[in-house]
Design goal:
Copper Amine Oxidase, Chain A, domain 1, about 525 residues, alpha+beta, 5-stranded antiparallel sheet
């Protein structure tokens, strides 16, 4: 056993030495690494692009699933004109087409905030920068934290060339990589370019990632330089986060202080991160196949190993000029879903094509007027709300029909385990049984159902607003009396505070939010459905 482990470690060590000079190597006179990193040297351009989606239904899919998949398979996004004025400012106009529907739109990106003007909405839809950066699940932040998060986007732009150069410098070439001359038409101009063609499948990607990690960690100086860039990128925000969290106990305060000691010393932080990476990369690579085979994706029962196989493929054509800048690209991505996938889909195929011109020339992007107000996509708790988006649209519009009726983005379902009444077991954010009445955490459940919640500390009251119906419910801690749309509502049990969370009977949630509740005796769980 020890001999086997020694051989494995020796093999990984020798591999890392041989890969030190690895990276995207020149092919046919074209520096592939330079091609991959050149996109970050583009500061402005005008361009166009198109993306189409093909969804292949499984033979066992039910009629409704096949109907939806057929609808989405006809979907295309056409960007007629994209204008990048700077790395943080751009605009695009185009349309979304599916079936017989055509939905024009215009999008402006300014310092990572997004303004969307689209048919069906009477005002521009706005997504603020810090919600976009947090994937729409933005927590409540202090003013200093939000300022740092907004500055993060600019720091990220500045750091991207270094990060990209490091990755492309160590990432090996795929097995299928060819270069040949090509003549293409871009904006009515005939250009003689080099066509770089590469193909990659899921199983090869795993091998390349292993090689990249070993190559990267063997390059001590390069890795430390990268970590220094990452430190400058994230340390200011982390420091503010640690200050705002503080310590809820002497032990946690001590942990915070120790972390800040490292964080306040850049050299110490970089050394600490490098040593941690060096100690863990080789074992991680050695166990990666086993980890992927055991790691599940969602609730389908499939693992990452089932996704990263030869049935997943990428074909990419890059048309590059003499300066190694990509002027045109064409992509085909095929994802074959495991048989356990629950949505009736067998495979997903995405194809795209884009062209760029006026590269690094003065470009003035388009603008969208917000003088008559906007629609904020985020709700008051800082979360993206599909319900709020849908209710802001014209019910007769194609976009409303697509989102509400066909894609059903407002449909919500939550399943929570319920311990028996005699049990002392407690599930975080979970319900509990109070002598036959299921009590649920009001904030967690209502936010999962896309509602807005406000807390009035002085009155000890919670107000819940359901965007789709406009229903407003008000309840008071330690009281059975509540109101729904101004009408009295008597709770089975009083709203109570449990470990910092307000709990209410589940029937109140169902009736105040137009939801339905189902009980599973077999699973001992409760499911809340909201259409």
């Amino acid at each position: 056993m020890l001999k086997k482990q020694w051989k494995s470690k020796l093999g990984l060590t020798l591999a890392s030495i041989s890969l030190l000079a690895a990276g995207c190597q020149p092919v046919g006179g074209v520096d592939i690494a330079k091609v991959m990193s050149s996109s970050h040297q583009i500061n402005s351009y005008v361009g166009s692009s198109a993306v189409s989606i093909e969804l292949i239904a499984d033979e066992a899919a039910d009629p409704k699933q096949k109907e939806l998949l057929a609808l989405l398979s006809s979907m295309k996004v056409n960007i007629e004109e994209a204008k990048m004025q700077s790395k943080t400012s751009a605009s695009m106009k185009g349309s979304i087409t599916y079936g017989k529907a055509n939905i024009p739109f215009k999008l402006v990106i300014q310092d990572m905030s997004y303004i969307l003007e689209i048919e069906g909405a009477d005002k521009p839809i706005v997504l603020r920068s810090y919600a976009a950066g947090m994937g729409g699940n933005a927590p409540q932040l202090t003013e200093a934290m939000q300022e740092q998060l907004e500055q993060l986007s600019q720091r990220a732009v500045e750091a991207t060339p270094t990060i990209s150069s490091f990755i492309t410098g160590h990432f090996p070439n795929p097995s299928v990589l060819k270069v040949e001359p090509a003549n293409v038409q871009i904006n009515n101009e005939s250009l003689q370019l080099n066509k770089v063609h590469l193909e990659l499948n899921g199983s090869e990607l795993v091998k390349l990632v292993k090689q990249f990690l070993l190559s990267a960690i063997a390059d001590e100086q390069g890795t430390k330089e990268l970590l220094a860039v990452l430190y400058d990128l994230y340390a200011p925000l982390l420091k503010e986060t640690m200050k705002s969290l503080g310590g809820s106990s002497p032990q946690s305060q001590g942990q915070n202080d120790a972390f800040l000691t490292i964080l306040n010393n850049k050299k110490m932080a970089v050394e600490f991160m490098y040593m941690y990476a060096k100690q863990n990369i080789e074992p991680f690579v050695a166990n990666l196949d086993q980890t992927l085979a055991m790691m599940p994706i969602g609730q389908s029962g499939a693992t990452y190993k089932q996704w990263l196989d030869d049935n997943q493929s990428l074909k990419l054509d890059l048309y590059v000029d003499a300066e190694h800048q990509t002027r045109m690209s064409a992509m085909e991505l095929l994802l074959t879903l495991p048989k356990t996938a629950p949505n009736g889909m067998k495979a997903l195929k995405v194809t795209s094509e884009s062209k760029l011109w006026d590269v690094n020339k003065p470009v003035t992007m388009d603008t969208i007027s917000t003088e008559n107000g906007v629609i904020e996509w985020m709700n008051k708790s800082g979360r993206l709300s599909s319900s709020k988006l849908v209710t802001s649209l014209d019910p007769q519009s194609e976009l409303y029909t697509l989102l509400k009726d066909q894609l059903q983005i407002t449909r919500k379902q939550i399943t929570l385990p319920v311990p028996p009444a005699s049990s002392s077991q407690y599930f975080f954010h979970g319900p509990y049984n109070d002598n036959g009445t299921v009590m649920v955490p009001v904030r967690f459940v209502t936010e999962q159902l896309d509602a807005e919640l406000e807390w009035n500390a002085a009155a000890r009251q919670v107000t819940i607003t359901e965007p789709l119906s406009g229903s407003v419910a008000v309840l008071t801690l330690d009281s059975k009396e509540a109101t729904v749309n101004g009408q009295p509502f008597m709770l089975e049990k009083a709203a109570v505070l449990v470990q910092g969370s307000t709990y209410v009977p589940i029937r109140f949630i169902a009736e105040s939010m137009n939801a339905k509740v189902e009980w599973s005796q077999e699973m001992q769980s409760v499911t809340i459905n909201r259409e």
